[in-house]
Every structure is written in C-alpha cells, then in structure tokens.
Amino acid sequence: MNVNFADILRDTARRHGERPALVDGDRRLTWSEVDAAVDQTAKGLAAAGLVPGARVLLLVANSIDFVASYLGILRAGLVAVPLNTGLTKPEIATVTAHSGARLAIAGPGLADRLEGIRTVAPGQLEGDAPLPLPIDPEALAVLLYTSGTSGDPRAAMLTHRALSANVQNLTELGEDRMGPEDVVLGVLPMFHAFGLNAVLGWAVATGAALIVEQRFDPEETLELVGKHGVTRLPLAPPALHTLLGRADLRAALQPVKVVLTGASTLDRTLADRFEQVSGHFVHQGYGLTEASPGVTTTLGESEPKLGSVGRPLPNVELRIADEQGEDVEGDDPGEILIRGGNLFSGYWPDGVDGPDAKGWYRTGDVGFLDSDGDLFLVDRLRELIIVSGFNVFPSEVEEVLVAAPGVREAAVIGMPSEETGEAVKAFVVPQADTTVDVAAVREYAEGRLARFKSPVEIEVVDQLPHSVTGKVAKGRLRESGR
Prior knowledge:
- It holds the Pfam family AMP-binding_C.
- InterPro entries: AMP-bd_C, AMP-bd_C_sf, AMP-binding_CS, AMP-dep_synth/lig_dom, ANL_N_sf.
- GO terms for molecular function: CoA-ligase activity.
- This is Long-chain acyl-CoA synthetase.
- The chain is α/β, with parallel strands linked by helices.
- The protein has 2 domains: about 5-380, Rossmann fold, CATH 3.40.50; about 385-480, ANL, C-terminal domain (GMP Synthetase, Chain A, domain 3, 2-Layer Sandwich).
- Helix content is about 25%, strand content about 25%.
- It contains 13 helices and 24 strands.
- The strands form 7 sheets. The protein has a 5-stranded mixed beta sheet with strand order 11-12-13-14-15, sandwiched between helices. A 4-stranded mixed beta sheet has the order 2-1-10-9, with helices on both faces.
- Strand 7 and strand 8 (about 155-160) form a beta hairpin.
- The longest helix has 17 residues, at about 30-45.
- Mean pLDDT is about 90; it is low at about 145-150.
C-alpha cells in the first residue's frame, strides 16, 4: 500500500501519463500534468514554512484547482480540511478555531468568508522547497467535519491508510469496477466524502478521466454526458429526481454504463421510476465519512435488489448487533457495525469515539441483512438530518433559532423532501407575551446558516413535548404528524 495517498497519483501518472485526467470547462490536463501541478503546490506549501501535520483549510469549489490543492496538501505531509463552499463566515470561523488551521486556500469569491487566518488563492503558492520524507501511513491526511454519536459537529480523522484502503477496496470490485477507459462525471462536491474519495480518489487510483462540474444542472449535466461520452454517472438522489423531468433522458444517457448513488437514502419508488424512464438500474451504496466512505455497494452483483444498498466492499466486515453489541438473529434489524482498514481514527483532536479495541465501529445506523448478505437500511439512531447528502446537526440549527427575535425554545427535525431527500423543519416557542414573526426568524437563520441547514418550514407552537429528563421528545413531534 502507498504510504502517502498522493503517491497513488504518481503511480497513475507513470502508467497513464498521457491519458486525459481532468476536464474543467476549457481546461484539460493529462495525468502527468496533474502530477506536475500537485508537485508544484506541495513544494509551494513546504516553502511557506508549514511543517508536516499542519492543517490547511480548503474552501474551493469542484475544479482542477481543488484537485491540485487537495493532493498537494497531502503530498506535502499536511492535513487537508475541505470545507463546504456554502458555509457562512461564522461557521467557517468555528472550524478554523477548532481545527487549528495555519493556512487557507480559497477559490474565487470565497476569500472574504475567511478571517484571522492567512489566505491564498489556488496556484498562488510559490517555491521549490524539498518535500518531506515518506510519512507513516497512520499519519493524519484529512479532517472532514461530520457528526459523532452525540449529534454535535465533529471532525473525523482520516489517515493516509484509510483513504488508500477505501480506493483499494473499490478497485477490487467485480466487472462493475472503474477502469482507465471510463469517463466519470465529477459533479458530487469534492468537499464531501463521497465526491472526495469515492469519485475523485477512485478516478485517481484507476486513471479514469474525470469531467469536473461545480454544481448539478440537468441541462448542463446531460450536455456534458453527451459531449464527453460519460460512462459513469455518480449522482445524489435529488439529482435523479430532477432528471426524471427530462423527456430526452433515455437518449441523453446512452453513453452511460453505470448510474450510482450513495450520498443519502434512495427512495425505492424513485429508483424504480428512474429505471423505467431511463433504462438504467440505479446502483446504490452505503457509506459514511468515518469509513472514507465506502461500506457496501450493489456494484458487482449480478442481480442487485431494489431497496438494498448491497454487500460489503472487499476487505470490509459488517455485522448487525443489538444494544449489548451481540449479533442479532436471522434478518432482525439492529445497529450496523463495521470493521476495515478504511475506518477513521476517531474524532479530532484526541481520537475519541473511534473503532473499539477489536476494530469495530458502531455506525449509529439501523439495518438488517437478508439471507444473501444484502444490507437494507431501516433508520438512524442519531438525530442527524441529511439534506442532499449533506449532514445537518439539529443542535447547531436550534442554537441559532433560540437567538432569533422572540424565540424562547426551538426544536428541529428532518422531514421527507422529494427535492433534497430530507429537509429541515423547525418548531419554535415564543417568548412570554411575544408574537413570533416567522419571516423574521427565517431571515435571521438564513444569515447565519448555510442554505441547506436553514429550515424550509417553521411552525410556531405553544410548547414542545419533553421527556422526564427535560430533553425535547422529538419522536413525539414526528408521531404527532406535525
């Protein structure tokens, strides 16, 4: 296994150096050119005086610049902290302080969201300092902000070993695995684990060409599919829903061999409708940031089952356990536990709540295995809300809402959404003798939260249901049909 994840790029450049690697609008790079750009970035970072292990924020949209910056950070022995480009200035300030980052790389129009940290544009780093010696594969490579079992925002610590193991597992899949002849659409955000290491990382490992797109647009996306002969189409479920409105969908997807999703739960009805309209079965996968991210997939199965998220990837172990951690019987549901080299090393900075002494990690998700070993997801133990594949932590939204004018108490839950999978719904209780202006609360929240975190529905209630310990009983809010 490669010691530094960026070494995988060196191997690919040696094998497929003159093949197309990245297409970003009018910009095109071969794998040799990508390797050279990564080298230049790494040497510039080393010349900037950053020592191995230093954290670097990466606030850059999908682009060649993101790829060169991300892999350059890793090659320099530094730690990449990719950030959602939709985050607000206060949210970024929180991450900056928590991560202890020393430098930020910001794309066009994004630098003004950063303060209190040295900020440079992609490609602005210059220098020719020597790169560090090979590092321990257990060295930290990436901090990805996600959620732990407490529901609070936390940073998963992904090592070079974990990133490399994930792409190795993917390359060992059967006939559905990616190859150098493939053309992959790179529209899933690269600051997200799926886009970062199940799309970009896998393409880097195989030498497949990656067509980079900053954001999904049904017309532009289908145009790129036809123009570049895209063979692999990884999309989030909301994008699949949007594409169903295209009358020319079947013809537009003619070059495509594989459609796959995995950023959030795929509704069975949506998957069935998409196959009927487009002629393409939608392959599913299950993963989480803490697994870098791949756990299961239907890729490689001769007869994948509708509603299943497939079987464990090569070298990944999975079991279903009860509250005591004992295996459940038959196909009873229970918590999903996973083990493998692709797992994270706990949460930043001290590695807490990682895999146990035997290597097993409790995912907080509930599912069951059928007699063939296919996994079906049932629910989530934690309160996490997933909007378009992005994590939303209720406590973070609630903290903003209770500071809004006239609000005394707030509770946030997820509700089904055809467009985004889930959406944020808020319940707010007015302060005594006060009337809550819903529009004012919405405006207040939208000024402090990324768009995907902001409540799409705000309901004013006289009181919230509470448990005997004083905690808001969100299950009762859901059961009430609100």
